[in-house]
Design brief:
The complex is a heterodimer. By secondary structure, chain A is α+β, with helices and mostly antiparallel strands. Chain A is about 30% helix and about 30% strand. Chain A is built from nine helices and 15 strands. Chain A starts with a strand and ends in a 10-residue tail after the last helix. Helix content of chain B is about 45%, strand content about 0%. The chains are: A alpha+beta, B mainly alpha.
């Protein structure tokens, strides 16, 4: 059994394996997602987006490993890999732990799994991943919009406030806006903070998941202002991983969603899931199996 | 009585089989490729091989099919240099 890096030349094979493993998304959708990830990775000067698992009898499976640099809140910046869309063909699932061990041979990096199936979550925990939070806080935006957010202002990328942000943060916001996310600058506690939300759906209802925020305290204090901004753009809920819904507007605390699982150094206070599968792959395909 | 180099990991496998009420396995019965045991059980075995027997799982030459039967597991551990758990 070998792992072969997925390069641009393997796009068709990768698309085919992903469509086979995750049929909830059409092959054309997978093709678009694979192209988007390659475009991003190649802009970073890299060429691989994960690995195809092979053996003498053929291809056994696939795992995307999307690299990203964490610099918004991490000092010094660190490298992470989002392990996404893990699929082993029927009968080959038992090879999963060895594939993961090989994929994670770069010991200095941090690894993230955001959409693991229940079996995969357990397997991840056995090899050292930890759950970053106990569940998902889901904030319905209609009641939240009635809540005041004193001393909080929301700015968009085109505003004068954006010019005051560090160039790298501005670029991070712009890149995610181009990928279809809501990219904002939140004025809170007399400072400007980048906040990014990725479009998603729950039970067919449109919402947005927080993928970048300096703290959940900001989300709590800015919930009213964020709700008003998001409602005006057609989103009906906002969600993010957390340990409690205390202090938020009337919310749900959902423990059945896949937790953010992390292996390696991480700061549980901040939320940084930028350049992850949440921005490259439409939600219906986001469930890693084992 | 047979002394197995793989006694510790063998015990883990037999314990998992017992917990899942699957009964004992023969020396040459496929454990994983047959679907008898799943990826979570394979994880337990691999972690034990790494931590107790010093098996380098990142080595591309490590062949996972060698953990598929108790017999091949024993052969692999016999061939492994270094100390073994007592």
């Amino acid at each position: 059994m070998k792992l072969r890096p997925i390069t641009r030349d393997d796009s068709a094979l990768a698309t085919s394996l992903l469509a086979e493993g995750f049929p909830a998304l059409a092959e054309t959708t997978w093709k678009d997602s694979v192209t988007r990830i390659f475009d991003y990775v190649e802009r970073r000067g890299e060429h691989a987006i994960g690995s195809i698992v092979t053996a003498s009898r053929g291809d056994l499976g696939i795992c995307l490993a999307i690299p990203a640099e964490r610099h918004a809140f991490a000092q010094p910046p660190s490298t992470i890999f989002n392990l996404a869309c893990f699929y082993m063909r029927p009968g080959e699932e038992w090879r999963t732990p060895l594939v993961l061990k090989r994929l994670m041979a770069q010991t200095t990096a941090t690894y993230l799994d955001l959409t693991a199936s229940p079996v995969m979550r357990e397997l991840n925990r056995k090899i050292g991943f930890v759950d970053q939070a106990g569940g998902m806080v889901i904030v319905p935006l209609l009641p939240a919009a009635l809540r005041p957010s004193p001393h909080v202002r929301i700015h968009t990328l085109g505003s004068a406030a954006a010019a005051q942000l560090d160039t790298r943060l501005r670029d991070l916001l712009a890149a995610h806006k181009a990928l279809g996310c809501v990219a904002l600058i939140v004025e809170w506690q007399a400072a400007l903070h980048p906040v990014i939300l990725a479009p998603g759906r729950r039970k067919g209802v449109a919402g947005a998941r927080v993928i970048l925020a300096p703290s959940r305290a900001l989300l709590r204090d800015a919930a009213g202002a964020l709700a008003r901004h998001l409602l005006a753009r057609g989103y009906l809920f906002m969600d993010f991983d957390g340990d409690s819904k205390d202090g938020f507007p009337p919310s749900l605390f959902w423990t059945r969603s896949p937790p953010v699982q992390v292996l390696g150094a991480h700061d549980a206070e901040t939320i940084d899931l930028t350049f992850s599968e949440l921005v490259f792959i439409p939600p219906a395909g986001l469930l890693n199996g084992a | 009585m047979t002394q197995y180099a793989s006694a510790s990991v063998r015990e883990t496998i037999l314990q998992i089989l017992a917990e899942r009420k699957l009964g004992p396995a023969g020396e040459h019965d496929p454990l994983f490729s047959s679907g008898l045991l799943d990826s979570l059980a394979a994880t337990e075995v691999l972690i034990q091989l790494e931590s107790e027997y010093g098996v380098d799982l990142s080595d591309e030459d490590f062949d996972i099919s060698r953990i598929d039967t108790l017999h091949s597991l024993e052969e692999m551990i016999e061939a492994q240099p270094g100390p073994r758990p007592g």
